[in-house]
Amino acid sequence: MARIVRSRESITIAVDAMGGDHAPAVVVAAVAEASLRGGVGQGVNFLLVGDEIAMTEALFELDHNSERIQLFHAPTVIGMGERAQVALEARADASIVQACALVQAGEADALVSAGHPGAAVLAATRHFGLVPGLGRAALASVYPTPRVRGEAEDPFSLILDVGASLRAKPDELLGFGLMGSAYARIVSRNERPRVALLSNSRESTMGTPEVVRAHELLSRHEAINFYGNIEGHEIPRGLADVVVCEGFVGDVAIKILEGVSEAAFDLARSAYHERVAWRMGLKLLSGGLQKIKQLTDFEAYGGAPLLGLEKVVILCHPRSGRRAVGNALRLAIKNVRAELPVAIAEALDTGTSQG
Amino acid sequence: MARIVRSRESITIAVDAMGGDHAPAVVVAAVAEASLRGGVGQGVNFLLVGDEIAMTEALFELDHNSERIQLFHAPTVIGMGERAQVALEARADASIVQACALVQAGEADALVSAGHPGAAVLAATRHFGLVPGLGRAALASVYPTPRVRGEAEDPFSLILDVGASLRAKPDELLGFGLMGSAYARIVSRNERPRVALLSNSRESTMGTPEVVRAHELLSRHEAINFYGNIEGHEIPRGLADVVVCEGFVGDVAIKILEGVSEAAFDLARSAYHERVAWRMGLKLLSGGLQKIKQLTDFEAYGGAPLLGLEKVVILCHPRSGRRAVGNALRLAIKNVRAELPVAIAEALDTGTSQG
Hints:
The structure is a homodimer. By secondary structure, chain A is α/β, with parallel strands linked by helices.
């Protein structure tokens, strides 16, 4: 392995080059492109972790700034079909494990992976400590909505947890609300993000016992601008800036949003081929359809932050293309520059003193 | 109250006339229309339960067959904003309670309500017994998919529970699978319906402990054609004929499907007004859009069966229009004719002997 040279001013992003359905090609391509970027790329280095030969071959074909990219060899990869826990224990030399170890050792400031999400969450939570005062990390997903928010005019709502864990206790749901708030403040520059609790009713006394108790905790917490409970149909409308839920429900919710988008665009595609009139209609409508597509297009932002750890971790959908991985790299850089783990620790600290 | 006359051959549907956002107008209109119908309406009587003056006034304006409609006065109604349990205990004279009592007394064969869903579920489960061998009733919702199934070529999948309760134990999830199967066999005439378990992974060992155990029970049950676990994005594709999940998750899932539809069509409507080219495009595309709309249109079928009780109960979305209530009436008649509670008891009996 080549010695990794770091300067104090620069940022280094460790990237699991082998993770994802189109790895290493799209991952390496996204890194190559980012290495050439003036603004965002300035002072940013990338540490590609994976099969050295495969990465070298992929880079060879691409324009890139070789001074900004270093390769770190990791001989194996955890495949999508594998059971995360078993695979992680069997292969300490897997790219995701090695990438985590590099971040843990201070060789990089953040981790980006489009690999097996369960394995990435598990590897990250094992390598990096939880922010003090937090019971549980949460995977947050942004989803596009018709409403824009904050100074950055983000057309996104944040939903967490979407699968870092399954169930959540009331105080953990409160922690998700505090982390989500901090994230929306920093990333969307939304000063008073509206936090909502996902339930089966707007009524505060309805829902599971955990949800009923979490409603109480969220509503009386001064650091949280609590909107109240929302129901499933209010998610796509984007009424709330931050939606809090347990991981099992969040996983189902975010995947349904994704699935509806796919099913609708499959139908639109088949309509395109079916009739000349429909084809013309689709062309005339393209601007309008673009608006609908924005509502449901997951490639447009591409990275889900794993919040609550002492390091910045961004996971991409395994099916991510180059654009999605590129957006995830940008998000990782932004979160490192904003010192997100510190900001979240501060938000939780406010939590403890006021809670 | 007028004496209710019943013949052995006829079917009587008790309808909560006061339930729903547009009650009693749309409910009475749907019943009036159904009373005139030749085929389906033959031998079918309706018992409208609610404010007698309001119902009489509404009927007065409408063509209807007065021999097929009887009114039963119930002076109060449970409003949408009320807490179900409290309201039910306070008002035994509410339309939903009276409608349940009439079914329980054998004056009607089925209940249809577009009122407060929580109150309707609670009133029904208090009045009607559970089918023997069943731990819990389940509210089933059909949702449209691109795939058709069964002899009836239903473009619908069934998902249950969507909110009769919150959590579910493994054997209750198995019960949902057996009931859903029986329903798909009878209503969609789908001989071997594919039953799937909603989880956060296709992997049988993933998910909550309840889901992991339910996977085992469903997979080894001979009366169930088990497809395995599915994830949220597979719901809109309609891969499974019956999707099994706990009520809290099901409620969120079905409302997201509904919400995405609304958000997308709001955007299409605004596109229509925004540009002439878009308006022309929408016109040319109308057939194609219709296809997309079918994917997400909840008015098209309008009734959710509450399964596992000894009586036929169909709940409508409170926002239902006349068409949706009319479809729910048709569904109630169909389920009474098919003796659905008996069929479900038989399916569960198979369950006990083989499980």
